[in-house]
Amino acid sequence: MVIIMESKNITLRVKTKLYNDYRSYCKRKGWLISRQFEIMMEEQLKGEQND
User: Fold this and answer.
1) What CA–CA distance (Å, rounded) separates 13 from 19?
2) Long-range contacts from 3-10, C-beta under 8 angstroms, 24+ separation
3) What pLDDT sits at residue 48?
4) Residues whose CB is less than 8 angstroms from the CB of residue 6 and which lie 6 or more positions away in sequence, other chains included
5) What are 34-43's pLDDT values in tens digits?
6) What is the DSSP string of the chain?
């Protein structure tokens, strides 16, 4: 069984150099920037549950 989660478009404001550097980093790794933010949010929420 496959569960498809609804997605949400968001707008973020970050420093241009930071974004460009991170975008290049993700590209080299073959990662999607949006998925990296999802992983970060999931990990922070897990951390909250453990506090």
Assistant:
1) 9
2) none
3) 85
4) none
5) 999 999 999 9
6) --PPPP---------HHHHHHHHHHHHHHT--HHHHHHHHHHHHHHHHHH-
CA separation for the pair 7, 9 (Å, rounded): 7
1-20 pLDDT, tens digit per residue, is 888 889 999 999 999 999 99
Q: How far is CA 22 from CA 1, 7, 40, 41, in A?
A: 34, 22, 14, 17
pLDDT confidence bin for 50, thresholds 50/70/90: confident
